[in-house]
Amino acid sequence: MSAKVTSLRAPDELTTRVVNLVRAGQATTRRELMRVTGLGRTAVEDRVDQAILAGILADDEYAGSTGGRPSRRLRFRGDRGRIHAVDIGGAHISMAITDLSSRVLGRRTVASDLRIGPEATLTVVRDSLASLAAELGDPRDPWAVVVGFPGPVDADRRRSLTSALDMPGWLEFDIPGWFAGYTAVPVWVENDLNLLARQVWEHSPQDADHSDMFLVKVSNGIGMAMLSGGRVHRGRFGRAGGIGHSVVVTGENAAPCICGQTGCLETVAAGWGLVRDATEAARDGQTRALSARLAEAGRLTVQDVIEGAREFDPVSVALLQRSASKLGEALANFATGFDPGIVYLCGVLPDVGDYYQATVRRALLQRSFQASATSVKVLHHPIAADEGVSAAAGLALQELFRADDSALWFERATTAAPTSAA
């Protein structure tokens, strides 16, 4: 480190840019930083020295020489802090503790029932994360907490906007405000599909198709994230992408929805809607396979419908076909106005097989403006085990290392308990 720098000062945007270039592996020597940033040697040395003094960068081994004095490589100190990442689902809550390089250090999954309300649910999250940190022998406060939430979130990424009847108490609930009673670290909340869509985009070819895309999850409920120009389209109040509660059935055939409306897409295409109709068919004796499953277990699940379809049970096959067809019709309305290049389908129903995607695409083509619909790709995206918490951790790193004058990384680096240099 240069002997000139002996005290820390608040970093400017160029210091954060230097840190991010090293963090991303795009420039890992002082020479490379000079070339990429256009800064002179003194300016680069000064900002590198500040980052080393803050404990976020470290000198590493010497790089191979291309003539002249060899340059030492710089290493981003991912060990310097921890991120607590949470992915809240309707049936399970996945949690992970990662380092600043997104490496998962420990994980935990617990059953969830969002009907118990936000305080009880978040208490489970808080206690589970504390227990996991203790198991890892690392009780320090994290640098940040990010919660992926299964519903709309306001533009400030603080409050849940869901008014679903099966999630009482969550409407306008201030999740970071609740955590503030237990920790002073930054807490961000984001819709789980917005997090996932951003992660899918970051790991996809940066082409025109992926620049404007939909990611639709069809499981017990239905949700959608929309990316425009590679950025999440949130809408004015954070409710963009609410395809599950777009009305697709009217009149006497419109069934009541958990949102309080009737005829929503979820009533005919989501897992809970399929289970409702499958149960009715089983009780009426219309399906021997589902009747047997109902008699054995006392209730049906969406997995029962999927297994029934795999066994060619006519009722189960018809329900899955209806789900895919109605989803395609609803997507056609969104696609005609938004004009995406790619529609990714994920969740337990798209996981069934290629015919689900094919049915969605066929219905989308039939109901869309043909000039745009014929070129849209409908693809399956299987969700990896850690993908939800990994996406949550990615948002934390994006916010902590944002290249502006907030420099949250510097605040956390200079106030959090240190670790030994690895």
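(ticket continues) Second input and output from the same batch:
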Amino acid sequence: MTRCTDLLDEPTVIIGSGPAALTCAETLRKEGYKSHIIMITKDDTLPYDRKKLSKKMTHDINEYIFRQETFFEKYGIKVWLNTTVTKIDVEKKTVYCNDGKPITYSNLVLAMGSTNKIFKLPGSNLEGIYYLRDYHDAEVLYSQIKRKHVTIVGSGFEGLEICSTIDDIASSVTLLARSSHPLKYLGAGLGKEINQVL
């Protein structure tokens, strides 16, 4: 992989720090890109694998992280943590962040990822309702469910993985699904077999 050697050009700015953002930065270096790369994220940790949050309970963020800090230092990839983009001026090729400092870019990559579907129903803001999106969500969730009755809304891969992960620590687990079987997009046959296991 190429290291950053061109200090004159404006950087490539990547907004986001998920798998797509990290893959973009790594691919640029592998293809010989020598200018600065800056990843901007509102997270307070280096890029990590969110898919593992539903599979494993741990308080060690290093078990989720894709690359250690030394990797980013070696290849000249700056990661701005705790930073929110407030404005993008595409004509001036400038990004504005919550710290008030504008940054001019040569290339801009938007890789913010997806967001949770938030329920807007009566009672949906009550205590004891959790969403699993980031590492801090997982910490709160797993610390609150010991010996409690847990209901999971959603019967896709993530819902099933959470069921399996918390089965030993929750008093009971109930899975709510709109269809008659989980993983409906994989077909009724597999879904019915999973129903029998559950």
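Agent notes: The chain has a mean pLDDT of 88. The longest strand covers residues 85-89. Closing as not reproducible unless the customer responds.
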